[in-house]
Each structure stands twice: as structure tokens, then as C-alpha cells.
Automatic annotation (TrEMBL):
The keyword DNA-binding applies. CDD domains: cupin_XRE_C (cd02209), HTH_XRE (cd00093). SUPFAM superfamilies: lambda repressor-like DNA-binding domains, RmlC-like cupins. The keyword Cytoplasm does not apply. It comes from Micromonospora andamanensis. SMART domains: HTH_XRE. It comes from the Bacteria. GO terms for molecular function: DNA binding. Pfam families: Cupin_2, HTH_3. InterPro entries: Cro/C1-type_HTH, Cupin_2, Lambda_DNA-bd_dom_sf, RmlC-like_jellyroll, RmlC_Cupin_sf, TransReg_Diox_bact_type. This is DNA-binding protein. Keywords: DNA-binding. Residues 6-60 form the HTH cro/C1-type domain.
Length: 178
């Protein structure tokens, strides 16, 4: 699904694999593998591609034919992985573009990204277990199990696990703001 969506976006923007690769600072071979479903991109690669297309990561996963009722079952969800030391997400919602809900796992010392980043949405993160530090707009907010934070995600942000125990959270993101 992601490969097909990426190919459509690339063609809509009249880009060759090489042009997109140059713009996103990735290899043409990697893009070809993603489009053909031979490999899954890292979260960093998804962010670069979303920037090139001036869209959200969620839009890269949009499914125009998403069902009206979507059941998300453990073990069959789309998995968004990142380099070691960063967050892993399981996608809980289909790609209709109206709402993105992710289940995230942070091992001790892991973070959602190397640097805080921003995107046009509203975001809410609920800590299910463990402790998470939400760095938002230059401020650090420590959240424990049962606590949540909601914010304008145009503020640069990241989540990190500064504890020595794993952390689990649910992140909901609305569609981009105008």
C-alpha cells in the first residue's frame, strides 16, 4: 500500500525516482524497493518524503478506499520502525486522512526522533505505561501512566524515555491544519 501511494504521489508531482531520491536525500534504489514493496522505509525516510511532497506522514499511508469500519488486530497492523534508539509505532487506524492513531513503544533511552520536529496537526499522547518526557516547543513535560498531553504539533516536539523501564503510549493526530 505505501509503495503504491508513494508511486502515485511521485507521478502526480512529475518526479522520476532519481529526482525524488535527490530531493529526499535517499538512494533511488531504496525508493524503488519501497515502491515495489521489497522494503519498509524508516521513520526518518518517511519524514523526508513527506517534506518533499509538503504533506504529512499520515498522507503517505492514505487509503482512498479505506473501509467505513476498520478493525485493528494485534499482529496484523502496519509497523513503522525507526533506527535503533528511536520509537516504533503500530498503526491503529486506516488511512482515511481524518485521524491517525498510533501505538508506540519506547525502550529506555529511546526517542521519537533525533531532533524535535513539527507538522501541521493537533496531537494527543496518552502514556499507557512507564514514563515519557514530551519535549514540546522547547519545554520538557514528564508524563506517567494515565497522563496525557495535547498540543499544536506545529510546535517542534519529540517523545523520549529517560527512565530505565519501557514506556508505552498511544498517539492521536488529527489531519493537517490549514
Amino acid at each position: 500500500m505505501l509503495g503504491d501511494r508513494l508511486r502515485v504521489l511521485r507521478q502526480q508531482h512529475s518526479l522520476t525516482l532519481r529526482q525524488l531520491a535527490t530531493a529526499a536525500d535517499v538512494s533511488p534504489a531504496l525508493l524503488s524497493q519501497i515502491e515495489n514493496g521489497a522494503t519498509d522505509p524508516s521513520l526518518a525516510t518517511l519524514r523526508k518524503l513527506a517534506q518533499v511532497f509538503d504533506t504529512s506522514i499520515a498522507e503517505l499511508f492514505s487509503e482512498p478506499e479505506a473501509p467505513a469500519v476498520h478493525i485493528s488486530r494485534s499482529g496484523s497492523r502496519s509497523l513503522l520502525t525507526a533506527p535503533p534508539g528511536q520509537i516504533t509505532y503500530e498503526r491503529l487506524t486506516p488511512g482515511r486522512g481524518d485521524l491517525e492513531v498510533l501505538q508506540a513503544h519506547l525502550a529506555p533511552g529511546d526517542a521519537s526522533s533525533a531532533e524535535p520536529w513539527a507538522h501541521p496537526s493537533t496531537e494527543c499522547a496518552i502514556v499507557i505505561s512507564g514514563e515519557v518526557v514530551a519535549d514540546i516547543g522547547g519545554e520538557a513535560y514528564t508524563l506517567t501512566s494515565g497522563e496525557a498531553v495535547t498540543f499544536d504539533s506545529r510546535l517542534a516536539h519529540l517523545y523520549r524515555n529517560a527512565s530505565n523501564q519501557p514506556a508505552h503510549l498511544i498517539i492521536a493526530v488529527t489531519p493537517p491544519n490549514p
